[in-house]
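re: that complex we talked abt at group meeting.

here r the seqs, copy pasted straight from the sheet so there may be weird spacing, ignore it
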Amino acid sequence: MTIFSKIIAGEIPCYKIAENDKFFAFLDINPVNWGHTLVVPKQETDYIFDIDDEQLSEMIVFAKKVATAMKEAIPCRKIGVTVLGLEVPHAHIHLVPLQKEGDMDFKHKIDNPDPERMKEICEAISSKLKFEN
Ligand code: AMP
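got the structure back, here u go
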């Protein structure tokens, strides 16, 4: 079981943004910028391009809804999208609010992000989400 599956199962706490029957979104615990969010499929697959076409398409649509809410909640020019997957073997999409290119520099993470601010950002994004289910 990956650490992300444990988060999805509620065994490890997270700043949860959204979930449906297939996908889950939560704040990255070591954000590169405020609002840095991860979108993961509930079904464990290590490499994102091993996910079948239908599920991958649905994952992108789910990520789009999360990104739209992020852009409404956080002042930024765009939401940047990255896939790395070198650390956690459970496919995930990084969504990061961007004012400038350097806002998505994975070598420079926010040092000890304040839990209160993380909670506020989590609630601000969640409150903007519009899901049919
Ligand atoms: P990567 O697999 O290279 O895309 O990186 C994994 C990402 O997951 C990193 O940005 C970590 O900060 C993040 N991460 C690892 N553990 C947790 C956790 N328990 N909660 C939230 N994010 C996490």
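couple things i noticed - The chain has a mean pLDDT of 96. Strands lie at 16-19, 23-27, 37-41, 78-82, 93-98.
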